[in-house]
């Protein structure tokens, strides 16, 4: 087990997170996880956003099929693992009683057993790492330990990607704000020169033009800067 765990750590350590799209990272990680877990024949990553779940990456159609059965019903081991932060092991899908309707249909699709591990990140659970096999009793203690290690890495990758996305959005918003301020200052300068008014009076002219025409202040300022015409004047 220690050797297998070491192999998993080494493979995960080689995954590049920087300057990559999250789906590419998760696809690589889900392939590593599937290879690492002795019992897994198919693996997927479920993410939950605003109580809506989706499969962010999968390796093996069996995993996608089983995930979709749960999304259709709104419950199942992968969804409950993601929502409750608990690990769920289904030893035999044919006799599973916690989710009888899902289990019956999953068994009909060829799922014999499954292991769903929550993705914990900063005190919250953001989804689950799901593992499926066509045979009953496919997952043992080694699979659980390895699944937890892989799930922790997935959670970090998702958290980092979302933090980077928020930072990028913040920079974009800041740039937009700076551009807006720049064009408004330019428009104010035009009005100050044209009408010999103060900066405050020029800004008032712009806001009144914006309100009369029901056009955003930045757009009014940009039009004035480009054409020399103050809308509505």
Task: List the SSEs and their pairings.
Blueprint: H1 2-13, H2 22-36, E1 42-49, E2 52-59, H3 61-73, H4 77-84, E3 88-90, H5 100-108, E4 113-121, E5 124-133, H6 141-195, H7 199-213, H8 217-227
Antiparallel strand pairs: 1-2, 1-5, 3-4, 4-5
Helix pairs in contact: 1-2, 1-6, 2-6, 6-7, 6-8, 7-8
Walk me through what this model shows.
The protein is of the alpha+beta class and 233 residues long. It has 2 domains: 2-167, GAF domain (Beta-Lactamase); 175-227, Arc Repressor Mutant, subunit A. The chain contains 8 helices and 5 strands, in the order ααββααβαββααα. It has a 5-stranded antiparallel beta sheet, with helices on both faces. Strand 1 (42-49) and strand 2 (52-59) form a beta hairpin. Helix 6 (141-195) crosses helix 8 (217-227) and helix 7 (199-213) packs across helix 8. The longest helix is centred in the C-terminal third of the chain and has 55 residues, at 141-195. The chain is elongated. It starts with a helix and ends in a 6-residue tail after the last helix. The model has no long low-confidence stretch (mean pLDDT 84).
């Amino acid at each position: 087990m220690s050797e297998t765990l070491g192999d998993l750590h080494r493979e995960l350590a080689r995954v590049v997170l920087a300057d990559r799209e999250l789906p590419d990272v998760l696809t690589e990680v889900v392939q590593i996880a599937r290879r690492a877990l002795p019992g897994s024949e198919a693996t997927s990553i479920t993410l939950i956003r605003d109580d809506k779940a989706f499969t962010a990456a999968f390796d093996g159609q069996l995993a996608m099929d089983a995930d979709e059965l749960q999304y259709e019903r709104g419950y199942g081991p992968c969804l409950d693992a993601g929502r409750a932060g608990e690990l769920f092991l289904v030893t035999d899908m044919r006799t599973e009683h916690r989710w009888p309707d899902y289990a019956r249909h999953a068994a009909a699709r060829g799922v014999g057993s499954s292991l769903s591990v929550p993705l914990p990140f900063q005190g919250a659970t953001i989804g689950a790492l799901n593992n499926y096999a066509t045979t009953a009793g496919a997952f043992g203690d080694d699979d659980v330990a390895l699944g937890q290690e892989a799930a922790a890495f997935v959670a970090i990758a998702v958290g980092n990607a979302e933090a980077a996305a928020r930072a990028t959005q913040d920079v974009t918003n800041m740039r937009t704000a700076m551009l807006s301020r720049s064009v408004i200052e330019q428009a104010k300068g035009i009005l100050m020169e044209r009408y010999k008014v103060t900066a405050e009076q020029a800004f008032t002219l712009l806001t009144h033009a914006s309100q009369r025409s029901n056009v955003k202040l930045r757009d009014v300022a940009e039009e004035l800067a480009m054409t020399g015409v103050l809308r509505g004047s």
